[in-house]
Specification:
Chains A, B: Belongs to the flavin monoamine oxidase family. Chains A, B: This is Monoamine oxidase. Chains A, B: Its cofactor is FAD. Chains A, B: Keywords: Oxidoreductase. Two copies of one chain form a homodimer. The two termini of chain A are about 20 Å apart. Chain A is built from 15 helices and 22 strands. The first copy, chain A, has helices at about 15-25, 65-75, 105-115, 130-135, 140-145, 150-160, 175-180, 185-190, 205-215, 255-260, 270-280, 335-345, 345-360, 395-400, 425-440; strands spanning about 5-10, 30-35, 45-50, 55, 60, 80, 90-95, 95-100, 200, 220, 225-230, 235-240, 245-255, 265, 280, 285-290, 300-310, 315-320, 325-335, 370-375, 390, 410. In chain A, the strands form five sheets. In chain A, strands 1, 2, 10, 11, 12, 13, 14 and 22 form an eight-stranded mixed beta sheet that branches. In chain A, α3 packs across α7 (about 175-180). Chain A folds into three domains: about 5-40 and about 205-280 and about 390-445, FAD/NAD(P)-binding domain (3-Layer(bba) Sandwich), CATH 3.50.50.60; about 45-65 and about 80-85 and about 195-205 and about 285-380, Polyamine Oxidase, Chain A, domain 2, CATH 3.90.660.10; about 105-190, Guanine Nucleotide Dissociation Inhibitor, domain 1 (Orthogonal Bundle). Chain A is α/β, with parallel strands linked by helices and about 450 residues long. At the A-B interface, α5, α11, α12 and α14 of A face α5, α11, α12 and α14 of B.
């Protein structure tokens, strides 16, 4: 294998791969970006109903602390708008219907926030008590926390579901705290105004990725060309797709862990990387969209936001874009509830969700005009959302090598990020870091 | 896709795939068995040093309760011999060097055994308290068990390491109890005489697999032909390798979960199966063999068996075959210790292991003539040993579908077994079950 081909081949045109491609191109590298799908954007996917109603089927929000993705939005002059927050949220807490988070749950959230500040996101395995915190599930920690059971239940769903897209059984206390620390704390992550859900993108989040792709040189992006394997040696790499093989000096793998593990590597990946990839299951979030003629919940003084400690849905949000012809209520199920919904037929699934929407927002919510689901866990080129997380014990054992290059292979993707892990912002950070790693590793002779 | 090809294509020629192939052939099916490696046997691999000393680099033992694999051994008239147990074991317990397991650890083991009897291996998710037991790691349960800390530490290593090849952080209480129940209880699993390590195979465990392969019809086994993907439809399947595509009425995927997840499926696998496969990481066992001119430990009255609650090795065993020219001491590291050894260079690894062997068995153990490691986690066509286990939360959410066919795709492998899960016996059981499923699913027109 020589370096007669490209300087760098990047695998995966989500935000991480697009960022790495842009950075490396800007630094004068000859790059090729390969994408299995016929579109860019990874876990961002924007679609429009025939009447023009915009739906973000995947990631959609940007918070003020997420400076890297924010910079891109500004760079492209993309319009944004604040997530609407008129009216009251519904907080379904222990069978009680409230408009605020009870103080007892707030205290538990504050304790998690305080604990997260003891976990350095750059080196979570080096935190004091890291091993002990990685040996217990977040569920066990909650159960032993001394907080009221109701608060445990609510906070477990809001944190492990709403943030990590799973259940408190699936990740350790350490992994949970790392995620919170990586995102800047509980308030930043859960919040709308001032928080991670503050801003939406006019035209949808996928649009940012499309603008990033537009700036790549002609021919540098190949869509609809799944990568099958990567050969790598001391002199270079060869990235093999269903259509061709592309030699290059370096490769950047910008895929979710489970997809990175599906590539055929020659020579095979190291034992430790295999162990790391095996231990990062993706979240099970199921995001559904119910479309109505109008945001009727506003007439009842409701914002469309809800959080629940029971029922099939953990949260809902008014997802109506400004000026849209119709109104969109978007709802999320996580963990065991999301698994149960997937065991049901599409009809049963819709019935279960709309019944719950009815309980939260009244009779009219039971009868959406449209009901749209996009199951990322079923998508061959994603396999789970929002992002992947280490199973208990995994972060301390394997976390340290996530962004360590393996020879001429470099690793990106939001799961490898230090800040904004799991978000667009982390994906961008990881792409910047991988690009820096490649540039640092380039030999004088290959830098031209 | 039609059924003009084979009746059944089986992917993977370990004990599960070989069993399915034999059963289906015996039932009159036209079968094809595809194997990536140039040998059969999966996680059984027997090699001989130039002087004839036999080494089982993977699975090697059979217990009296493991009737399915035992029947095969008898069927082929393969000779066996008991694992030697002359002399005393070393039990390194809290810095004390003993020859038996302390009563306090025995009581903890007995409690685990009793709990495991409450978990039906056919339906562990239906056990009373299954959800609670799946939400906590085995480490958390141990810590809250009320048993002495030293017993927790010893038993954690012996059970999660010696049986599940990982750390108590990685699996839930439920998964641990399921594994114990599946194997017939703590005594059966940990024991030598009367237990799962009672019997060794003359000529090595791989030899059983070779005999199974010998009985297949000519041309039915294709070695060195990795399967890349499986196309499946209502009428049949097409199993795609690097060399060809084989149409068939049914396919049996007899691979460890992580490899099953690496196949390209068209249409893609269901969301639930993807979720299940993502959550089953394989064990991290590192099995090493130190070869000496003679079993010098016998002169000190030692059996070569050891278990330790500290140090890099959790257990050792005298692995000298009868009549072998040299003596073999085999040692196992698991979990964090196995990960740490993999971070070291081969030289550092050998030094760390032989230093520990010296501490357990005296100076002479520090200077083996040969030191052989075979890292199954690094093996492209295995990726971890002994077997895979669900991360916390996984068994209750996803365990129920492990042996549910997906259309014309059937699932085998020891990880799908009810009894002997993780052992040869479970692999054979899974192959028998998958064959039965295929035969039950065959339409009258295709049974010829």
């Amino acid at each position: 294998m020589g370096t007669t081909g490209h300087d760098v081949v990047i695998v995966g045109a989500g935000f991480a791969g697009l960022t790495a491609a842009r950075e490396l191109h800007a630094a004068g590298c000859d790059i090729l970006l390969l994408e299995a799908r016929c579109r860019v954007g990874g876990r961002a996917l924007t679609r429009f109903l025939p009447d023009g109603t915009q739906l973000d089927l995947g990631g959609q929000w940007i918070g003020p602390a997420q400076t890297r993705i924010g910079e891109l939005v500004r760079h492209f002059g993309i319009d944004t708008y604040p997530t609407p927050e008129h009216g009251d949220p519904v907080v379904d807490y222990g069978g009680e219907r409230r408009t605020d988070v009870p103080a007892e749950a707030g205290r538990l959230l504050a304790e998690i926030d305080a604990l997260s500040r003891q976990v350095p996101p750059e080196r979570p395995w080096a935190a004091e008590q890291a091993t002990a915190a990685d040996r217990q599930t977040f569920a066990s920690w909650l159960a032993a926390s001394g907080h009221p059971e109701q608060a445990q239940r609510y906070v477990g769903r809001v944190i492990s579901g709403g943030l990590l897209a799973g259940s408190p059984a699936e990740t350790s206390l350490l992994e949970t705290l790392f995620y919170v620390a990586s995102g800047g704390g509980v308030d930043a992550l859960l919040g709308y105004r001032g928080g991670a859900q503050e801003t939406r993108i006019v035209g949808g989040a996928q649009h940012i990725a499309e603008r990033m792709a537009d700036e790549l040189p002609p021919g540098a992006l190949r869509l609809g060309e799944p990568v099958v394997g990567v050969e790598h040696g001391a002199d270079g790499v060869r990235v093999v797709t269903r259509l061709a093989a592309y030699p290059a000096a370096h490769a950047v793998i910008a895929l979710p862990p489970v997809l990175a593990g599906q590539l055929r590597h020659d020579p095979p990946l190291s034992a430790l990387r295999a162990g790391a990839l095996q231990r990062q299951a993706a979240g099970t979030a199921l995001k559904v969209h119910a479309v109505y003629p109008e945001p009727f919940w506003g007439a009842d003084g409701l914002s469309g936001l809800s959080t629940s400690d029971s029922g099939v849905l953990t949260e809902t949000v008014d997802n109506t874009p400004p000026g849209a012809p119709r109104a969109v209520l978007t709802a999320f199920a996580y963990g065991d509830e999301a698994v149960a919904l997937r065991r049901s037929s599409p009809e049963e699934r819709q019935a279960a969700v709309t019944e719950r929407l009815g309980a939260l927002f009244g009779e009219r919510a039971r009868q959406p005009q449209e009901f749209i689901t996009h199951d990322w866990l079923a998508q061959e080129w994603t396999r789970g959302c929002f992002s992947a997380h280490f199973a208990p014990g995994g972060r301390t054992a394997f976390g340290g090598l996530l962004h360590t290059p393996e020879g001429r292979l470099h690793w990106a993707g939001t799961e490898t990020a230090v800040h904004g892990n799991g978000y667009f912002d982390g994906a961008v950070e990881s792409g910047l870091r991988a690009a820096r790693d490649v540039l640092a590793a380039r030999t004088p002779s290959s830098t031209g």
